[in-house]
Amino acid sequence: MDGKYDFSETDRKYACNCRLGASYSKSKTEFALWSPYAQQIKLNIYENSRSAAPHIIRPMQMDQKGVWRCTVSGDLDGAYYTYCVTADGITRETPDIYSKSAGANGLRSMIFSQKSVYVKGWENDRPISLSSPSDAVIYELHVRDFSMDENTDHIHRGKFLAFCEDNVTNSYGDSVGADYLSGLGITHVHLLPVMDFASIDETSHKAQFNWGYDPLHYNVPEGSYSSDPFNGLTRVKELRSLVMALHRRGIGVILDVVYNHSFDADDSPFGKIFPHYYYRHSNGHYSNGSGCGNEFASERRMAGRFICDSLCALAEDYHLDGFRFDLMGLTDIGTLNRCAKKLRRINPDILLYGEGWTGGCSPLPEEQRALKHHAEKLDGFAMFSDDIRDGIKGSVFDDRDCGYINGNKTKERRELIKSVMCGGIYHPDVIRPERQCWAKTPLHCINYVESHDNLTFWDKLCLSMPKASYEERLRVNKLGAALVFLAQGIPFIQAGQELLRSKPDCNGGYDHNSYRSDDSVNCIKWNLVTENRSIMEYYKGLIAIRKAYPLFRMTDAEIIRQKLRFEDLSGCAFAMHIDDLILVINPNRRPAAIRLPEGVFDILADGVHAGASSSGECRGKVSAMPQSILLLKYRT
Fold this sequence. Notes:
The chain is of the alpha/beta class and 636 residues long. It contains 15 helices and 27 strands. The strands form 6 sheets. The protein has an 8-stranded parallel β-barrel with strand order 10-11-12-15-16-17-18-19. It has a 6-stranded antiparallel β-sheet with strand order 20-21-22-27-24-25. Strands 3, 4, 7, 8 and 9 form a 5-stranded antiparallel β-sheet that branches. A hairpin with a 4-residue loop joins β5 and β6. The N and C termini lie far apart (65 Å). 52% of the residues are buried.
């Protein structure tokens, strides 16, 4: 690290565990802000979020650990506050990094009681319980995408409250929205960032869109998703209502969190409160391993503490079921393990996973990074498997590159698919070097072919299979989905993947990076529930199979090595034998034959149907249809 910004001595001398932020009681509110090198700090209290000037201004006093304190008597429930921090001779006004709510655009932090954000029934709400992370079926969803389609009768379009609406239908009269999620069989909704981000003007009525990977406040719900962004109580209550509505349906809620960088560095609340401390530097400048202009210095004591405090506050305040970490490779292993330990005290079943890579070069030492190749050093974290993603469909960085199911049917690719079907662990019967098998347990792997990043799965197939018919692409889509849901590990799909979701751009192509494209590109087209019902039912059937048969949800690597065996078939097709189940995987354009053991087998899935109960029977020599699976269960 550049010596100008070496804060190791700061950590040694000033790091502390005392409570920070605003601590409310009816008779007084105590304020505590950590900024050991500030020359002066004043507290400003505003009557409401739109007040022109503060009605209370109080000087703060610093203690020996660099914490500035002030106590204001009286009931401040519903008031707002900021700090004027003088650092390096410059005074700037800032909200609190420990804010739990704020006014419009996060300019002022809010003081509130738990009574003021109470939602009826909240005290009885509980997270979803799982026997194992492998029981999860994760559905990635953007709040605005969920309800902006004009072909539905949602009332609260683009808002948290849309998830609370029952009996929503599309223009054909079929159930969509939250009712649809209940019927699909998913266990968890993974929400793209819902904590306050900087790119949306919450005071504007103009339609605006962003994925939200530009964080401003980490503990404050995004105001544009609330019905009243000016009232900080509203956003808290409505996010709680969303969580409770999904929990009532048996669906857990996972938040996408972005602790690897903030929207800005110098002008962020972190930069104003303690310039440079919370960010990494290289050669005297902010480092940029995120690709977004800065990196959060999680390895520093109070920065790492902030991440832990933030995650625990969110888990407790919103009864959350999990967190997905953006660019997790930029966060140090030690901090994440401390977070995991604390989070499991709050929710023993909490799901923790993320992107085990960085977005560029970082000064954080490689051995400290939470990369996928360091999965075994992390306490119960899973990583997105780009092995299964690119192995199935081809590289996300090359539109026309093909994977195992859409054209690259080599022996090497077949062995990779065998490996990922084992959950990415080493298997002696698979021709893949053990050093490449970064997963030591299947619970390290999030299996997917599509997420919000890059092309949708359907768009990728359209570009990589330009001469294929619609029917052939449909077969290949089903095959890819089967590999995701029937692989060991944790399955994950983007919302609408099961509906052949597409993101066409205005130039006749497809949108690779729709992070700020408009609703016409991003929103879920709910009429597809009716128009593409057959493929949706196929995905639904695969989910039902996974839930019904624990052999697809094993958690022990050694047991998987004992139970799974492979049989090579013609043209790089193969069969996977798991006790009384046989899964034939055929990427070829012609049938793949297999001789079955003696006895009768029930058909659970083929290229047309999928479900937990038998759709027919077979014996002797059978064939998997072209570009499809055949899943059989021995009839005892």
